């Protein structure tokens, strides 16, 4: 009961924090942020989709130059794109026993992805982007699909997904895989049957560390892309907002979805910037 109360308290704090961050904003740069949001909506409205197995899976992306965005005088634009991995190449239909679900979770971390026909990110100058990726295979495979296997990138377990701890108990029933993974995630958040897995509190600290690392990277390269996971990206987004970043496009949480955040900074002599938008 105490664990449930603590979880409810944590969720309330997260919600209030998000409301506070949204209300706070940066009023001096608000017109520029709104202009950037409008650019995303305008370009996204006519964006084409890349296809995997005949099915549209993601809108194409391209980078805008700073002069295409109405920025305040003597300022520059930094951007971070949080990309979720592509669909794992793994059968997910039907019902699973507990042991089958345990095996599915293991396989989920080891398989590649269903690769679309073409990359959805169109890059004129690859050196303009700093790329980060989770060390889990589905994220690395996605980063390789987007940027190419020879592309230099920072791959780190710090960007791995939050835990899905199946635990040691084995109820005798068969259920859809989403039942097992959702139940496992809730148990993990409550600290139940973790079996030595990272705690929820430590995972949130890791997300904050990741957000700080990405923000610091924009000081050297104004455009940063992280290819990682849905739950982790959600918490990185929250931490970046607390650090003064603004969500200018929220593409949801599906496979190959993206969340793009922007921050406007005073222009340093000789610096250059750019922004991301969907095409």
Could you walk me through the main structural features you see in this protein, from its secondary elements to its overall organization?
The chain is an alpha/beta fold. It has one domain (27-278): Rossmann fold (3-Layer(aba) Sandwich). 38% of the residues lie in helices and 23% in strands. It has seven helices and 13 strands. The chain has helices at 2-24, 30-44, 98-108, 137-147, 177-190, 200-217, 230-242, and strands spanning 49-52, 55-59, 61-65, 75-84, 95-96, 121-122, 129-134, 154-156, 175-176, 223-228, 246-250, 258-266, 274-278. A six-stranded mixed β-sheet has the order 8-7-10-4-12-11, with helices on both faces. A hairpin with a 2-residue loop joins strand 1 and strand 2. Helix 6 crosses helix 7 (230-242). Keywords: Plasmid, Signal. Residues 1-23 form the signal peptide. This is Alpha-ribazole phosphatase. InterPro entries: His_Pase_superF_clade-1, His_PPase_superfam.
Notable characteristics:
six-stranded mixed sheet, single chain, His_Pase_superF_clade-1, alpha/beta, 279 residues, Rossmann fold, His_PPase_superfam, globular, 23% strand, plasmid
């Amino acid at each position: 009961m105490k664990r449930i109360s603590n979880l409810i308290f944590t969720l309330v704090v997260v919600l209030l924090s998000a409301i506070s961050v949204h209300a706070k904003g940066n009023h001096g740069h608000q017109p520029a942020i709104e202009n950037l949001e409008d650019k995303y909506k305008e370009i996204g409205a006519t964006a084409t989709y890349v296809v995997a197995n005949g099915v549209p899976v993601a809108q194409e992306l391209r980078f805008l130059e700073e002069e295409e965005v109405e920025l305040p005088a003597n300022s520059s634009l930094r951007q971070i794109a949080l990309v979720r991995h592509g669909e794992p190449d793994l059968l997910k239909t039907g019902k699973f026993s507990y042991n089958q679900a345990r095996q599915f979770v293991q396989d989920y971390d080891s398989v590649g992805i269903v690769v679309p026909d073409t990359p959805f990110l169109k890059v004129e100058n690859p050196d303009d982007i700093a790329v980060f990726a989770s060390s889990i295979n589905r994220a690395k495979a996605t980063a390789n699909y987007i940027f190419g296997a020879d592309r230099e990138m920072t791959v780190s377990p710090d960007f791995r997904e939050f835990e899905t701890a199946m635990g040691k108990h084995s109820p005798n029933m068969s259920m859809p895989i989403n039942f097992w993974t959702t139940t496992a995630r809730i148990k993990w958040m409550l600290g139940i049957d973790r079996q030595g897995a990272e705690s929820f509190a430590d995972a949130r600290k890791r997300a904050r560390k990741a957000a700080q690392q990405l923000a610091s990277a924009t000081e050297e390269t104004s455009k940063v892309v992280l290819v990682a996971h849905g739950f982790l990206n959600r918490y990185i987004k929250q931490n970046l907002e607390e650090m003064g970043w603004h969500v200018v496009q929220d593409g949801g949480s599906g496979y190959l979805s993206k969340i793009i955040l922007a921050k406007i900074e005073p222009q340093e002599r000789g610096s250059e910037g750019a922004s991301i938008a969907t095409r």
